[in-house]
Write a structure and sequence with these properties.
The complex is a heterodimer of chains A (about 325) and B (about 375). Chain A has 13 helices and ten strands. With about 325 residues, chain A is α/β, with parallel strands linked by helices. Chain A folds into two domains: about 5-160, Rossmann fold, CATH 3.40.50; about 180-320, Rossmann fold (3-Layer(aba) Sandwich), CATH 3.40.50.11900. The termini of chain A are far apart. The termini of chain B are far apart. Mean pLDDT of chain B is about 90; it is low at about 360-368. Classes of the chains: A alpha/beta (about 325), B alpha/beta (about 375). Bound molecules: iron/sulfur cluster (2 copies). One iron/sulfur cluster (SF4) binds near residues 79, 213, 215 and 303 of chain B.
């Protein structure tokens, strides 16, 4: 019987699922992913997390709870930094410790630290540490990792061709065809936010689908190649030290520069530290340019679909009145 | 050029000296008040952590008094503080205050880099810059030494409030004197004066440690005079953070061998095994340290939404249980008030007194 490795469908699942899936499967494990976020998952998360935690972290707790009795190993990596001198967010750095403190009866936890902030850091070290839970030979682990990275790259290439991560992940999990990207739309709106908020349909109230149903072409920062968003982020007067901050702010600067989107919808999670700054800076830069309509949508555990829908409709109407480019 | 800087507890004393010794014209922002906070709240992002709002209010109020240049610390993440200076600059620009910003980034290697950088600001010689830094640093340490004494005396003073009166006067004296010898004289004189305030009659004293995010720990305006209230309730306080240890750890690169946060970081493990930005790890580690030193309780204080402290908060219940120490977490934001805080403090202190009495009874019973 292969060992079962649990992957919570939350936080960096939305960025790295292909990598992790392929890596664990290469090492002979069976992957168990928690079900899409639902009410009982959120409730479970709210129950064990501290009140002040941001919504996505509470949701993560909920997914861990949903998985803990179903797997042999739980993959809860400590994602400190994925590139030089840049971090994800303080909460990510403490996440495995928080979970261990607050969620009882966990299976064995893989809480390997991924910290690539230093020049000298190598990805193979943490990869091997994870791999050793399943395989003793470093050579096999390295190969498994290289192959998984290839697979991740294929995933990202599909994004850069214009497919949204939700569609690509869906096709990966269910073997579905990718929907064709269509350009014949009323207008194009850039939805800016963390992947784990945008593509978790429960957290986001399925806003991408609602927008699409209104005839809006939706693009997100995830389909902009990192090299492009990085280049824009480098124009900032002070170096941005959050990976997602760089990605989001870089994308916004790119949208301003290209002037092709008809509106920017910034989706902020309630209680998110970095977002409180990135959203404000984005709004400032857009406003100074005075061209693109900009709207903020804050999601929390109490927001209802109706309220979100009204906001979306109002925003789309406003863009229509202004006249679409 | 008229320079200003943000308030944080007693920081204005050493920073003013440092800047003036470098030859700058200094405008101290008016003490933080409700107006400061409401100015900041009006112009800062809604969900930003509170220290930025007060910084911003300080800058606007300093600009009203003629300041045109801001000096403040920078940072490189992972918590929001690292981007404070930039965001504040953008906000001030949009509001039409054209203020220069001088950001002191943490030195990569040695604090001498800092001396050189400071010297360049006013084109003064490295020697002069060094002596400015030394005088500022001395004042910083002396202010902390005095405050540490005040934290003990408050719980034992004959006349409630007298220690704070002496403390405030001491800060003014400290601000005024300009030689190392005078600074040390002030220290000696004030420490003696504080000693004389202690009442002869004994009172049962409890010891409470205050841990958490640095701004809320150091700034009485945002913690609503937390330590003063605790003192009146008969609690001697101690903090996990003092200005001198922060300056030494973050600006001077640990140049001086003073009580820093290193030990606390070590003790955070196994509860929290990685740094999380801000002082999250220190909060957890110091709590362990205080428990082992026999403190009676720990209060964690932080601005609402502070990431590092939320991580710590999530972990503290386990620390409380395993290290057997009562812990209370207090979040502050622009809505919190002194009355609400007082109620919670009284309940916490009462609980500690009661459990102390009970445990005494318990040992007495055992003794029979
Ligand atoms: S980046 Fe924001 S949403 Fe994500 S974990 Fe950190 S605080 Fe929460
Ligand atoms: S430590 Fe907390 S309050 Fe201070 S800047 Fe960082 S996130 Fe904000």
């Amino acid at each position: 019987m292969p060992l079962k490795v649990g992957i919570p469908r939350a936080l960096f699942f939305y960025y790295y699922y292909p990598l992790w899936k392929r890596f664990f499967e290469n090492l002979g494990a069976q992957i168990v992913v928690s079900p899409p976020t639902n009410k009982s998952i959120i409730d479970a998360g709210i129950k064990c997390a501290v009140d002040e935690a941001c919504l996505p972290v509470k949701v993560y707790y909920g997914h861990v709870t949903a998985l803990k009795n179903k797997v042999d190993l739980m993959f809860l990596p400590r994602l400190v930094s994925l590139e030089r001198k840049t971090y994800i967010c303080p909460k990510f750095m403490g996440l495995p410790d928080m979970i261990r403190s607050n969620v009882k009866d966990l299976p064995t936890v893989i809480d390997t630290t991924f910290d690539l902030s230093k020049n000298s850091s190598s990805i193979y070290r943490p990869a091997r540490e994870v791999g050793h839970f399943l395989e003793s030979r470093d050579r096999i682990i390295d190969q498994a990792w290289d192959d998984a990275e290839e697979f991740q790259k294929e995933f990202e290439d599909r994004l850069y061709k214009g497919h949204l991560p939700c569609d690509v992940l869906d096709s990966l999990e269910k073997g579905k065809e990718l929907p064709v990207t269509c350009n014949m739309k009323r207008m194009c709106v850039a939805v800016v936010g963390h992947a784990y908020n945008l593509y978790d349909t429960h957290i986001s109230m399925d806003l991408i689908r609602h927008l699409k149903n209104m005839g809006v072409k939706v693009i997100t920062p995830d389909i902009i190649p990192t090299a492009v968003s990085d280049a824009y982020a480098n124009r900032l007067p002070k170096r941005m030290f959050w990976t997602m901050g760089k990605r989001l702010l870089g994308s916004v600067l790119h949208y301003i520069d290209e002037g092709k989107v008809d509106g920017i919808l910034y989706v902020e999670a309630f209680g998110c530290g970095p977002d409180s700054m990135i959203e404000d800076l984005s709004a400032r830069y857009v406003r100074r340019d005075r061209k693109i309509p900009f709207q903020v949508l804050t999601l929390d555990e109490h927001s209802g679909t109706a309220g979100v829908m009204t906001r979306l409709e109002a925003f789309v109407d406003m863009i229509s009145w202004r006249g679409v480019s | 050029m008229k320079v200003t800087f943000p308030h944080m507890g007693t920081m204005w004393v050493p920073v003013k000296t440092l800047l003036e010794e470098l030859g700058m014209d200094v405008v101290i922002p008016p003490p933080s008040t409700k107006r400061t906070l409401s100015l900041g709240t009006r112009f800062a992002p809604e969900f930003i952590c509170m220290p930025l709002k007060i910084n911003l209010g300080n800058f606007i109020e300093a600009a009203e008094k003629g300041a045109d240049t801001i000096v403040m610390a920078g940072g490189v993440g992972p918590c929001r503080f690292g981007y404070y200076s930039r965001l504040e600059k953008e906000i001030l620009d949009d509001l039409g205050y054209s203020m220069e910003m001088i950001i002191i980034e943490p030195p990569e290697k040695h604090f001498i880099e800092l001396v050189h950088k400071l010297g360049k600001l006013k084109k003064c010689s490295p020697l002069k810059a060094l002596s400015a830094v030394r005088l500022g640093w001395l004042k910083c340490c002396v202010a902390d030494n005095i405050e540490k004494k005040v934290e003990k005396v408050r719980a034992r003073e004959k006349n409630p409030g007298s220690a704070d009166t002496v403390f405030n006067r001491a800060l003014e004296k400290l601000d005024y004197v300009r030689t190392r010898k005078d600074v040390l004289d002030v220290q000696k004189e004030v420490l003696e004066e504080l000693d004389s305030l202690v009442s002869e009659t004994s009172r049962q004293i409890i010891r409470i440690a205050v841990v958490g995010e640095i701004y809320t720990v150091l700034e009485p305006f945002v913690n609503h005079n937390l330590e003063r209230h605790l003192g009146r309730m008969g609690a001697e306080t101690h903090r996990s953070l003092y200005l001198s240890s922060w300056v030494n750890d973050h600006i001077l690169n640990g140049f001086f061998d003073i009580e820093g946060t290193e030990e606390a970081c070590k003790l955070a493990s196994p509860y929290l095994n990685h740094m999380v930005g801000g002082h999250g790890r220190e909060t957890v580690g110091s709590t362990v340290l205080y428990a082992r030193q026999g403190f009676d309780g720990v209060i964690q204080i932080a601005p609402l939404t502070c990431g590092p402290e939320i991580v710590a908060e999530a972990i503290l219940p386990e620390v409380s249980q395993r290290e057997r120490i009562p812990i209370m977490t207090i979040y502050v934001d622009e809505q919190s008030g002194e009355a609400g805080l007082l109620t919670r403090l009284e309940a916490f202190v009462d609980m500690i007194y009661r459990s102390k009495q009970n445990s005494k009874k318990l040992t007495a019973v055992k003794g029979l």
